[in-house]
Amino acid sequence: MEIHKAPSKMYLDIVHELRDIIKNEGIKTGGKLPSERVLAERLQVGRSTVREALRSLELLGLIETKRGEGTFLADFQKHQFVEVLADFIMQQPDSFIDVHETRRIHEISAIKAVSRNSIFRELPVWESLLAKIEHNGEILREDLIREMIVATENRLSLKIWFLLKQYSMVRFDAMTHGMENSLVKDVLQAVRSGNENAALAAYKKWIDVVERERREESNDSRHF
Question: Does domain 81-219 have CATH number 2.60.40?
Answer without folding.
Answer: no
